[in-house]
């Protein structure tokens, strides 16, 4: 049975979600504010954290920033409806996914299960080590080594990087990446894949040969560059 932590100051919503998720065979713990939620999150006793953005004492972004300094526990951000800034900022800071309020219980359940499937995949199906050019990826440790730098990755960043390193030089559409890595269909204006890739790019040092690591083919998708960039490979 998976352990979830719900950090939200909306008492009525917390009560409803805790009851619903308990019926779906999850162990639910709750926190009424960011400060209390951070203390619980840092115990490492949870498989997934549901984190509201607007809260007293510490808001969701402050909690996420402090959490990511010490923990890679998956985080699903609960954002205001239609607030793209909140969604982008949450992903930039290391959230695994976001869900806009108000949402249906079934949509929340689907997102939770998708994130947990990524974690299970990481623990059971990933190779012990994956190497491409100057990168060594260690899925079990959820980190990579590149040019003597150790890079900590979120669960989503790990699976996305693993996908690319296993298939360098292959073009993947955003729809493919969303379904295969994030476990959800790509929605209009969804920038999740773009933001997770941006985080990976930012964490990795520049290639010593000056080449870009990942190429964006506008309207078609992304390709991890294998050696010398060969644009004909995507034509």
From TrEMBL:
Modification 4-aspartylphosphate, positions: 52
Localization per record: Cytoplasm
Source taxon at top rank: Bacteria
Domain OmpR/PhoB-type: 127-226
SUPFAM superfamilies named in the record: C-terminal effector domain of the bipartite response regulators (SSF46894), CheY-like (SSF52172)
Keyword set, alphabetical order: Cytoplasm, DNA-binding, Phosphoprotein, Transcription, Transcription regulation, Two-component regulatory system
Pfam families: Response_reg, Trans_reg_C
GO molecular function annotation: DNA binding
Predominant location: cytoplasm
Heme found in the keyword field: no
DNA-binding region coordinates: 127-226
Domain Response regulatory: 3-116
InterPro entries: CheY-like_superfamily, CpxR-like_REC, OmpR/PhoB-type_DNA-bd, Sig_transdc_resp-reg_C-effctor, Sig_transdc_resp-reg_receiver, WalR-like, WH-like_DNA-bd_sf
Coiled coil: none
Name assigned to this protein: DNA-binding response regulator
Gene: cpxR
């Amino acid at each position: 049975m998976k352990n979830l932590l719900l950090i939200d100051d909306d008492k009525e919503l917390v009560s409803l979600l805790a009851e619903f998720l308990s019926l779906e065979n999850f162990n639910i713990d709750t926190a009424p504010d960011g400060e209390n939620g951070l203390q619980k999150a840092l115990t490492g006793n949870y498989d997934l954290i549901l984190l509201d953005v607007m809260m007293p004492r510490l808001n969701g972004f402050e909690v996420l920033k402090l959490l990511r300094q010490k923990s890679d526990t998956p985080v699903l951000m609960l954002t205001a409806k239609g607030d793209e800034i909140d969604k982008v900022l949450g992903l930039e800071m290391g959230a695994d996914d976001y869900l806009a309020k108000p949402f249906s219980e079934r949509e929340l359940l689907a997102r939770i299960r998708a994130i947990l499937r990524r974690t299970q995949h990481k623990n059971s199906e990933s190779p012990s080590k994956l190497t491409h050019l100057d990168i060594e990826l260690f899925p079990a440790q959820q980190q990579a080594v590149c040019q003597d730098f150790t890079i900590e990755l979120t669960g989503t960043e790990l699976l996305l990087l693993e996908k690319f390193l296993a298939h360098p030089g292959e073009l993947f559409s955003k729809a493919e990446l969303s379904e295969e890595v994030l476990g959800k269909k790509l929605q209009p204006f969804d920038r999740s894949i773009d933001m997770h890739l941006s985080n990976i790019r930012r964490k990795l040092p520049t290639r010593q040969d000056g080449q870009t690591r990942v190429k964006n083919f506008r309207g078609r998708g992304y390709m991890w560059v294998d050696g010398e960039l060969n644009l004909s490979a995507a034509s």
